[in-house]
Hints:
This protein is α+β, with helices and mostly antiparallel strands.
Amino acid sequence: MLIAGSMRFLALALGASFSIYFVVLLARKPKARLADRLLLASLAALAVWQATSAIQLFQSANVSREEPALYLAGLVGLAAAPSFLLHLSIVWAKARGYLALPGYLVAPAMFWLLASGRDRPYQVWLCVSLAAAAVLCVTAARHSEARHERRFLGVLAAALLAIPVSGALGGSALVAAAAAMPAAALGHFVYRYNVLNLIISKRVVFAIVLGMVFAVYLTIVNAVVENTGREYAASEDLTRLILIFAAGLVWLPLYGWMTRFFSKRTQLYADFSKRVIEEAARILSLGERLQFLAKELGTSFSLHKVLLVIPEEPSLRGEFGAAAADSAAVERTAELARAGRADMIHRDRTDDAELSSLLAQLGFNYLFPLWYEDRLTGLLFLDTSPHVFLEENEPILAGLGGQISHSIITCRAVEEKIGLERALATQEHLASLGKVAATIAHEIKNPLSSIKTLAQLMKEDPEVSDRYSRDLGYMIGETDRLNRSVQQLLSFSRPLPEQREELDLSDLLETMAQFLSRQCERDDIHIRTSIAPRIRLKQASPEAIKQIVLNLLLNAVQATGAGGEVCLEARTEDGQVLITVSDCGPGIPDEIRQKIFEPFFTTKQKGTGLG
Length: 611
């Protein structure tokens, strides 16, 4: 009898504790919806019945009297709970809201019947309500997209059906235990998956488990003491003392487990700070470092997706778990993050509707802006699915954000240093080439002049010209080509100071296009222009612009076959001048695209790579 009463009291007390805890969570939840308020009302009504029943059970065992107020309060909770629960399941199933009205109309009658001692009609009403709520939960589960939500609604339906089944089997302790099952199911899914956007801390779970263990242990102690006292009346106190002292032996391994449990987060932070950041420091490429950090974050914190991106260069990013994202959305998110100056943003907690919408569009529920002093160095997007919240990991990741930001800044500084060193080495190399080119050009220029002069003199001789006119023309042409190459080498080695003046760019480009068009007519290549009128540059070098555009046009003509078209366009955009040269040729292969601006690089047999 004592064990049955103790188990019933324990089930009622635990059920009331669970229900009250979730009532507090739901009451503190921001942006509560109708379903949240109905769940709060259902749990509150259930908690009133469980708490008053537990208090009455305790009073009857100790003072042998009951409080009428407690009894009536328990009946109010008992009568109201089915109506709230039925309305909640109707909302979850997205059925018509007026279907919940009969439940509220029946509730006062159920209270009157219970107060009158006629329990049978209420039992029928409770069974019908719980069965209907279970069916509606299953219906809602079938329409839910999230797997964990489907499982939660299915388990909740089973827990609701367990209450009338336990009543049919008999036993008040079994009914009390079954009544605690819906709140226990809710607790499990909130802890594992943050359903309904609620959080149960691991420390709370630990405290609940520890309390349950000691409550069960004390119940066992009392049961053993009662049985021992029947045979050995003098040994009750000694038995109780021995059993309580034995709990100390259990405490030693439990204490070790507690220590490991509470230090796990700290160890994770220390390990990431030491191992991962140090390994990342060995990676000199920023893109590769971002990829490494994103992968380590995803695996260390069991995340679904991670995106680590540089706001100024959205293409420079590290991804984990197929975390590709739209660059425009990332840039807009960066703008909002700079304006808000927050260290952590959750999609369901932020008051910024646009930022919440952007996170939903990108497929993430957390954003950690990475700050280095007052500068936004990066954005860390996280998808914690199937969980909604990071819980204890939130402050850890917020703390790691500073280290990741410092790692990004350091890598950028290293890249810039390496780039400057490479640029300096390239300049020194080009300077050496320039000196060699100048020397070679001077050595070649004088003999070329002599060869051209002799060829021209021989061509003036009628007898020689008749026999060798074609060969002499070829010699003069090739000499001119070599002279142009020598002149390019001299210009590269000793660039002349630019003469800047006001320039009518439209007129210059039209003149160049007309001149080149006449030369291309024989090759059946058409030069088309689309040049905005009256484009004037206040400080420009006509020779430099002419050389650049002419080289581009000549390259386009050489890449275009007979019957093709080369287009020269010029227009102003946002206060700047845009000149475009396009052709219908094969284009520049990807493998050499990065080299086309390097001096002396050419794909032509007779080219110098200086055009």
